[in-house]
Design brief:
Largest sheet: none
Helix content: over 70%
Number of strands: 0
Distance between the termini: 47 Å
Radius of gyration: 14 Å
Number of helices: 3
Shape: flat
Number of domains: 1
Amino acid sequence: MDALTRTWLILIALTTASAALAGTGGLWTGAAVLLLAAAKARAILGGFLHLKAAPGWLGAMMLPLVLWLLGLWGVYALSLR
């Protein structure tokens, strides 16, 4: 199996997991959905855009994204109060 097909199958699995969590709620469910979103972004950046072969670029793209997702989770946590 080539790398693009493997990346596509990973994205399908992560999307299915996200859809399975969509009907539930709560603080940790929100964290799980955002974690799955980060995993999908990493798969796209590393697999389709081939950033895993470019030294430093995958981390440089993931760091702001992860910080943004952590901020979103914090706002979501505050909204549950």
